[in-house]
Amino acid sequence: MTDKLDAAVARAREMLADAPRLAVLTGSGISAESGIQTFRGGGGLWKGTPIEDFATPDGFDRDPVGVWNWYAQRRAELDAARPNAAHEALARLQRDVLGRGGTFTLATQNIDGLHQAAGSTDAIELHGSMRSVRCRDCEHRREMPVEPVAAVPTCPRCGAAMRPDVVWFGEALPEAAYLPAVEAVAECSVLLAVGTSATVYPAAGLIEWAIGSGGKVIELNLEPTPATRMAAVALHGKAGELLPRLA
Ligand code: BV8
Ligand code: ZN
């Protein structure tokens, strides 16, 4: 570790040690060391198609089996994946903060369920999860892992196509997830942003919201992002190495 990084880790530890209200926002980077591909890591493309075209309602309508099986493949990656030291450190941090009477809110953009597997409780899944599927048209939802199909299942209630229960580009985040996340960052004393490129809204907007509400931001990422300029402390390195030093 460089002295600069050591000093930044020490400052971040101080900020976390007495933060009465802690909010955490994670992105795909926190799962990279579990072997899960980040969007950017995959070059932001899938079959040569930009994610923004593929992970959309139109993308699904154009190629329902293709999109469904893209999620099935990503879910299959999870069978081999385990939470890494970063997920485990956040679960410890939650217990420590709650143990000293503070408040702790974890909002993730990830759909891999690794925070829950590491012991984090009440994790807010801003972009949904791969544990359930829902009807493309009506409210019908079913807890079932997304597995490969030759044809996507149809809704038993209205006959429309079922789809992964995730938030695609151009879709609003579920209020049940977004509102508690907004509330947490509006009240937080510190927001810890880990492994997110801070480019996808409205999730990325939570960082600005924390600043606007007087919260301080600690960013942990391999590289600078648009959020770095807002951070009181920016830690550049791997989440699996740095987070255990903070918690
Ligand atoms: C909405 C789905 C409106 C599940 C995801 C122009 C045209 C069209 C749309 C827009 C536009 N401009 C803005 C928009 C809105 C759009 C948007 O923000 N686009 C961006 C690309 C500009 N947002 C939306 O469409 C949102 N909806 O706006 O709806 C609306 C409103 C009201 C009513 C109706 C409609 C919906 C956004 C949600 C999209 N779904 N996921 C899934 O398939 O996973 S987003 C998806 O990509 C991920 O969830 C992730 O959040 C995002 C970014 O991917 P990555 O960059 O890979 O991941 P991440 O950001 O986490 O970056 C990885 C980081 O980790 C990197 O910085 C890397 O350095 C770091 N890292 C890597 N390894 C490590 C590490 N750090 C530490 N340690 C390591 N080891
Ligand atoms: Zn239906």
Main attributes of the structure:
247 residues; alpha/beta; six-stranded parallel beta sheet; three-stranded antiparallel beta sheet; 9 helices; 20% strand; elongated
What does the model show?
- The protein has nine helices and eleven strands.
- The protein is of the alpha/beta class and 247 residues long.
- A six-stranded parallel sheet has the order 5-4-1-9-10-11, sandwiched between helices. A three-stranded antiparallel sheet has the order 7-6-8, with helices on one face.
- The radius of gyration is 18 Å and the shape is elongated.
- The mean pLDDT is 94.
- The chain binds ligand BV8 and zinc ion.
- Zinc ion (ZN) binds at residues 135, 137-138, 140, 155, 157-158, 160.
Widest sheet: strand order? 5-4-1-9-10-11
Q: Tell me, rounded to a whole number, the average pLDDT.
A: 94
Helix tally?
Answer: 9
- Choose one word for the global shape: elongated
Unreliable sequence segments: none
Helix content: 25-40%
- Structural class of the helix and strand makeup? alpha/beta
Major sheet characteristics = 6 strands, parallel
Order of secondary-structure elements:
HEEEHHHHEHEEEEHEHEEH
β-strand number: 11
Strand content: 15-25%
Ligand catalogue: ligand BV8, zinc ion
Distance separating the two termini: 17 Å
Radius of gyration: 18 Å
